[in-house]
Design goal:
The protein is mainly beta. Helices cover 5% and strands 26% of the residues. Among the domains are: 55-137, Thrombin, subunit H, CATH 2.40.10; 147-186, no CATH class.
Length: 205
């Protein structure tokens, strides 16, 4: 048989009272204690060192060496660096002497090694190179690609783009220069670096 359970409605507690907004804020101010004393974020702030560095731009064969294979990666000897550069062998003759090479990782050097630069690594020995340096390509990115602002890869969208004379150029009105770069890559990962002096860059992918 059906069962009926009697229900008793309870009345809301409290009361309704209309007040001006200023009165409510006054009550909040009386009941809250604000601590506005400065609180240290850390006991000792970290030391930051900004180091001007350069990277390899080109590597011309000085000593071809022997016993090398295409694809060997050679590391320049000497110099002081945060990240070493790397030279990749792109061609050899029958004796393994290097006939072609390319900079694959510019490196980040605070002190450059002296030309001709000896190398280590790879399957051979005796290779040396005359290296040219450029601060614009200092990078730890392997096989990095560097675009200058005059490169056709850039589609500028900013206003009044300046030329490439050394120093601040921007667009002349203390604003950044906007641009778009379109490219295709099959690399499993990409590392973008915006390099410039005294500027802030924003990258949107």
């Amino acid at each position: 048989m059906p069962m009926f359970v009697p229900l008793t409605a309870s009345r809301e507690t409290g009361r309704e009272e209309m007040r001006d907004l200023s009165a409510w804020f006054s009550q909040v101010r009386r009941q809250q204690s604000l601590n506005i004393r400065p609180v240290p974020v850390m006991s000792e702030p970290p030391a930051t060192t900004l180091t001007k560095a350069v990277g390899m731009a080109t590597a011309t064969i000085t000593g071809a060496g022997t016993g090398y294979s295409v694809g060997d990666n050679l590391t320049p000897a000497g110099g002081n660096f945060a990240v070493p550069g790397r030279i990749r062998v792109t061609g050899v003759d029958g004796a393994g002497a290097i006939t072609g090479a390319a900079v694959q990782q510019p490196g980040v050097y605070t002190d450059k090694p002296t030309n001709p630069v000896a190398t280590t690594g790879g399957s051979g020995s005796g290779a040396s190179f005359t290296v040219s340096w450029n601060a614009g390509v200092a990078s730890s990115v392997y096989n990095g690609k560097t675009w200058s602002r005059t490169d056709a890869a850039f589609l500028y969208t900013g206003y009044n783009i300046m030329d490439t004379v050394s120093g601040y150029r921007g667009n002349g009105i203390q604003n950044g220069t906007q641009c778009i770069i379109e490219f295709i890559s099959d690399a499993p990962s990409l590392d973008f670096r915006l390099v410039g002096g005294n500027y802030q860059g924003d990258l949107y992918v």
